[in-house]
């Protein structure tokens, strides 16, 4: 029987904060999490490969080192989300709000950021741009 989202998140919290053998890493690959409220959750190292996160609220979430390859984050709220070292390869961030997000070291290879809200300096830092 498949675990519910609440069970997966509970196990992930135990995995992050527990001792050896506690809990389990969140694997949300391919799941439809559209419009879910994940505000402020500690989801570092979670696997969102190919997940649907359309309109999801991930504001203030800790997504450091998360696998978000191919995730669909259209119109998602990622305000002040921690995305340092997250893998966003082939992710679709069209219309997403990334205001105040930390993208330090994030992989944005072939990521679609059309129409998203992001501070230029945050994007430049993520892309390792250098001022001339």
List the topology elements:
Blueprint: H1 5-17, H2 120-126
Could you state the CATH homologous superfamily?
E3 ubiquitin-protein ligase SopA
First-to-last CA distance: 56 Å
- How many extended strands? 0
Main pleated-sheet profile: none
CATH class: Mainly Beta
The percent range for strand residues is under 5%
Might you state the CATH topology name? Pectate Lyase C-like
Task: State mean pLDDT (0 to 100 scale).
Answer: 94
Structural class: mainly alpha
Please work out how many helical segments DSSP would assign: 2
CATH architecture: 3 Solenoid
Order of helices and strands: HH
Domain module count: 1
| Cα radius of gyration in angstroms | 14 Å
**Shape by Cα distribution:** globular
Low-confidence stretches: none
Residue share in helix: 10-25%
How does this model look, in words?
The protein has 132 residues and is mainly α. The protein has a single domain, classed as 3 Solenoid (Pectate Lyase C-like), CATH 2.160.20. Helix content is 15%, strand content 0%. It contains 2 helices and no strands. The termini are far apart.
Briefly characterize the structure:
The protein is 15% helix and 0% strand.
Main features:
132 residues, mainly alpha, Pectate Lyase C-like, 2 helices, 0% strand
């Amino acid at each position: 029987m498949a675990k519910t989202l609440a069970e997966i998140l509970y196990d992930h919290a135990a995995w992050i904060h527990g001792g050896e053998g506690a809990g389990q890493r969140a694997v949300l690959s391919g799941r439809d999490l559209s419009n879910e409220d994940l505000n402020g959750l500690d989801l570092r190292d979670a696997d969102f490969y190919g997940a649907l996160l359309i309109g999801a609220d991930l504001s203030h979430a800790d997504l450091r080192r998360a696998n978000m390859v191919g995730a669909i984050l259209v119109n998602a709220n990622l305000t002040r989300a921690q995305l340092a070292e997250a893998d966003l390869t082939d992710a679709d961030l069209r219309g997403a709000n990334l205001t105040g997000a930390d993208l330090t070291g994030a992989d944005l290879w072939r990521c679609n950021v059309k129409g998203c809200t992001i501070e230029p300096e945050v994007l430049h830092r993520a892309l390792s741009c250098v001022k001339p």
